[in-house]
Amino acid sequence: MTVTQILTQLEELGTPQIKKILLKHGAREPLFGVKVEDIKKLQKQIKGDIQSIALELYDTGNADAMYLAGLMANGAKMSEKDLQHWVNNANSPALSEYTVPWVTSEHPDAWAIAMKWIDSKKERTAAAGWNTLAGLLSLKADEQLDLAVIRQLMERVKDNIQAAPDRVRYTMNGFIISAGSYVEALTAEALLLARKIGVITINMNGTACKVPFAPDYILKVKDRGSIGKKKKTIKC
Questions:
Q1: Distance CA 82, CA 8 (A)
Q2: pTM of the shown model
């Protein structure tokens, strides 16, 4: 299936209702408005050089195609230049905070790349960095993680979250949740720090979405006995 054929399929799957919802949640034109479940069904039909097709899809600039590209691409096969290109062209929270971290987390140098990104003055790049780090906490075995560095990052969040831009504030909060939920040795510290930070609010563009209250979220994970249980992938 060619990129042109895939775009045609996406256009046929799009609806004005879904497009309106996606735009309200920060998506940018061009897009067709395709449900994630339909994007995943289409993904299963695509054969051939998946990696090349994914890179081409991302470069179309179409939001639905870019989301599909993130599901298809193998981040381990992408260069750091490729990943930088992706984060530079991620023009919505769905892309910068999900699609880009999905593939970046698969790269051998994911941690180092994310650490560079969180220092960026660009809101979306920094947000991508924090969500990549959060994803790595959920994927990597504890023995592969440097707890001292994670603790330093948690302190950095505590000291800087209130003054950070909206999407960086949102993803910093997610990093604390991830530390407390996926690294058992840090659960108590993450809970204490999250309580000190308190409730985080950002502009949600009039949607019903809210920033998760980190202590409550971590405690829910604890109550269901899932603290420390790792994921196989963060793609969804």
A1: 25
A2: 0.97
